[in-house]
Amino acid sequence: MTKYVIKRLLLAVLTCFVILTLTFILMKMLPFTEPTGSLSIKWAYYNKQVNLGYVVFKDAPVNNLGECLWEAPASVTGGSPAYFYKAPIITQYLNWLGNIFTKWDWGTSTAINPNYTAMYIIGSRLPVSMGINIISVLISVPLGILLGVVAALKKNKLTDHIISTAVMIFISVPSFVIISLLLLWFCYQNKWLPSQWPGSGLSAEKRFLGYIIPVISLSFGSVCGYTRFTRAELCEVMSSDYLLLARTKGLTKRQSIIRHALRNAMVPIVPSIIAEFIGILGGSMILESLYTIPGIGRLFIDCINLKDYNVLMTDMAVFTMISLAAGVLLDISYGFIDPRIRMGAKK
User: Fold this and answer.
1) How far is residue 238's CA from residue 243's CA, in Å, rounded to a whole number?
2) Which of 140, 55, 47, 142 is nearest to 91 (CA)?
C-alpha cells in the first residue's frame, strides 16, 4: 500500500508539472497585454516583471528582442526614456519555475488588481468559494444518502418511483437553468432573496439570505447523484447471498440492513464524499458568475475576459492541483475503507 501511495503521488506531481508547463507556454504565446492604470502603475508593473525575469529592460531601442512592449516616457523614469521587451519563452519559463520554488511568486496581476500578486488574489477569493461549497456538501450528502436509502427500502413502490422520477428530472436539467429559475422565482418575482451576492458591509441577515440561492443550486446535483448511487448500491447489496444468510440466522430486516447492507454499500460511496470535500475548493464558475460571487470560479472567467494571464495561470494551477489531489485521495481511500482491496496486501 505504501508503494502504491508513493507511486500515485509521484504520478500526480508529474501530471501537474506537465499540465502547468504546457499551460504556461501556451499563455506566453498569446499577445502581451499592458497593465491597466496610470503611468506610475505601469512603471511599477514592468519593473517588477524585469525583477522576475519575464521582461527585459533597455535604455535604448534594440531590434533583436522583437516588438517593444512599452516605451516609458522620461516624465515617469525621471531621466531618459526606458524600453521594455518580452524575454524569450524558455527564459521566462525557467525564471517562472525559479520564482515559484524560491519565492513562491506566481506572478502579478495586470487587470484584476494591478500590481497585486496572483497568490494574494487567489487567497482573498478562496474562502468565499470554500464557505458556500462546504455548506452545500454538508446538506447534500446526508440528504442524498437518506433519499437513496428510502428509495432502496421501498424498491418498485410508489415512494421509489416518486424519488427516482424527481432525481432523473433534476439531474437532467443543466445547472445554469436551475440557478436562473431560482433567481427568477425567489429574487425577481417574489423579492424574497437578494438577486446578487451581498457585500461584507451588509447586515448578518442579508448575508445569510445571500447563501440560500448558491447552496440550493450547488446541492441539487449532489443530492441527485448520491440518491442514485446509494439506491443502486443498497439494492445490489440487499439482493446478495450473505444478507439472505444473515436473515436466516435470525436477524430482523432492520438489523441486517443496518449491520451489513448499509456498511457494505458505503464502501464505494464514502470515497466519493471524501473526494467532493477536496473538490469544494474549485467553486462553481457558472454559479459565481450569475450570482456575482467573488470566488475563484468567477475569477477564472474574469481573467479570461480581462486577459489577466498571470492570475489565470495561477487559478489554473489551483484547479489542477485540486483535481489531482481529489483523484489521489479517492484511490487511496478505497484501501483504508475496505482492507480487502488494499494494493500490495499480503494474502
Assistant:
1) 6
2) 55
- The residue type of 8 is R
Burial class (CB in 10 A: 0-12, 13-18, 19+), 344: exposed
Q: Please name every residue paired with 319 in a beta bridge, in sequence order, or none if there are none.
A: none
Give Cα 182 distance to the centre of its chain. 23
pLDDT at 19: 92
**CB under 8 Å to 134, separation ≥6 — which residues?**
277, 280
pLDDT on residue 259? 73
Q: What is the pLDDT of residue 335?
A: 67
Low-confidence residues of the chain, pLDDT below 70? 1, 274-283, 334-347
Helix and strand numbers (H, E) in the chain are 15, 3
User: Which pLDDT tens digit goes with each residue over 303-321?
Assistant: 888 888 889 889 888 888 8
SS3 82: strand
CB count within 10 Å of CB 192 equals 10
Collapsing DSSP to helix, strand or coil, 68 comes out as strand
Angstrom distance (rounded) from CA 242 to CA 264: 11
Contacts within 8 Å (CB) and 24+ apart, 41-50 = 41/114, 41/115, 42/70, 42/72, 42/76, 43/72, 43/76, 43/77, 44/115, 45/108, 45/110, 45/114, 45/115, 46/70, 46/72, 46/84, 48/108, 48/115, 49/84, 49/108, 50/84
Residue 143 is predicted with a pLDDT of 93
